[in-house]
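Q: what sequence does this backbone want?
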C-alpha cells in the first residue's frame, strides 16, 4: 500500500485509540487523513454517512468510532448502545459497497465473545455462546459487522476486515472514575490517595478475575498493519498474549504509582467476566503482527502521562 496516495477516513480518529492510529498512518506516509467529528457527521444517520463519503472521497475507511462505556453505562443504555453501534457500522459498510470503496477495516470488541469461552479465546469460538449480559447489546451489535463483512465479500466482493482488540490502555486514556476502565481508574485512585496521604484504597471485587491489556500504540500498529496486508473476512484478534489476575494488577499499579497504603477488596462488588485472554496467533500468521511493548514499561509511561496531564490541570 502506497500510503502517500491513499485518502483515509478514520471514524473515531479524535478518540483515544483513533489518535494513535492517525499518528501511525502519518508515520507511514499517509498525507490525506479525514477525521469526521460527530457534530458534523452523525454516523447513525444514513444521510450523514453518504455525505461523509462524498466529502472525503476515501480509498480506505478505518471504522473505530463506537458508543462505549463501562459496566454502568452499558447497564443504563443497552438500547442506545445496540442501535448506535449497529447503525454506524452497517451504514458505513453499505455505502462502502455502493461507492465501490477499495477497503474497509472495522473494529469489533472482546465483549462479542461468549461469557464462558475457553481461554485463550480463539476466533472460531466467537459464535459459541451468548456474551456477558451487561455488555451483550454492544458486543452483538459489533459482531453483526463481522456477518455483514463476510456476506458483502461473498456477494459484492467488498474487501472489508474485522479486528477484535482486547482491553486497551496507555497515554491519553480516559481517567474519569465514572466511565473509565480498570487501569486508568486504578492509576488515578493510587495517585490521588498517595498525594492526600490516605492509608488505604478500596478496590472492587475479589481480584480473582483475569484480564489482558494491550498498549494502545501496539493496537494502532496492528490495525494499520492489517489494513495494509490482510484481505479476508475471518475475524482476527489483537491482543498482548498474556493475562494478569486483578489481584496481581492492583499491587503492581500501586507500586508504580508509589502508593504505600493498604489495598482493601470490596467483595460485594462484581468481578465481571471470570477470565479474558486472546489467542493472538492468527494476527502473527496472517500479517506478521504481535504486541511489542512490555506491560510494566507501558504502565510506567501511562502513569507518567497522567501525572503530567494532571499537573497541567491543577
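A:
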Amino acid at each position: 500500500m502506497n500510503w502517500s496516495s491513499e485518502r483515509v477516513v478514520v471514524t473515531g480518529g479524535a478518540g483515544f485509540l483513533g489518535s494513535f492510529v492517525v499518528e501511525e498512518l502519518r508515520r507511514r506516509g499517509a498525507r490525506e487523513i479525514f477525521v469526521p467529528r460527530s457534530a458534523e457527521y452523525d454516523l447513525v444517520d444514513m444521510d450523514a454517512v453518504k455525505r461523509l463519503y462524498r466529502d472525503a472521497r476515501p480509498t480506505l475507511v478505518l471504522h473505530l468510532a463506537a458508543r462505549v462505556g463501562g459496566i454502568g453505562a452499558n447497564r443504563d443504555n443497552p438500547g442506545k448502545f445496540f442501535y448506535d453501534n449497529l447503525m454506524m457500522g452497517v451504514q458505513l459498510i453499505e455505502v462502502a459497497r455502493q461507492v465501490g470503496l477499495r477497503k474497509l477495516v472495522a473494529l469489533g470488541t472482546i465483549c462479542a465473545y461468549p461469557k464462558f469461552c475457553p481461554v485463550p479465546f480463539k476466533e472460531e469460538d466467537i459464535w459459541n455462546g451468548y456474551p456477558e449480559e451487561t455488555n451483550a447489546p454492544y458486543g452483538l451489535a459489533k459482531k453483526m459487522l463481522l456477518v455483514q463483512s463476510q456476506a458483502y465479500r461473498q456477494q459484492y466482493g467488498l474487501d472489508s476486515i474485522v479486528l477484535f482488540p482486547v482491553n486497551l490502555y496507555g497515554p491519553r486514556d480516559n481517567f474519569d472514575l465514572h466511565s473509565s476502565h480498570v487501569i486508568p481508574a486504578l492509576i488515578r485512585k493510587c495517585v490521588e490517595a498517595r498525594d492526600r496521604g490516605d492509608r488505604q484504597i478500596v478496590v472492587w471485587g475479589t481480584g480473582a478475575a483475569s484480564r489482558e491489556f494491550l498498549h494502545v500504540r501496539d493496537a494502532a500498529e496492528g490495525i494499520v498493519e492489517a489494513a495494509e496486508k490482510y484481505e479476508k473476512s475471518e475475524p482476527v484478534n489483537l491482543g498482548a498474549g498474556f493475562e494478569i489476575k486483578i489481584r496481581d494488577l492492583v499491587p503492581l499499579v500501586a507500586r508504580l504509582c508509589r502508593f504505600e497504603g493498604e489495598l482493601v477488596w470490596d467483595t460485594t462488588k462484581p468481578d465481571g467476566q471470570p477470565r479474558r485472554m486472546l489467542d493472538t496467533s492468527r494476527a502473527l500468521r496472517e500479517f506478521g503482527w504481535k504486541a511489542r511493548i512490555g506491560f510494566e514499561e507501558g504502565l510506567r509511561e501511562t502513569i507518567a502521562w497522567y501525572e503530567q496531564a494532571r499537573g497541567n490541570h491543577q
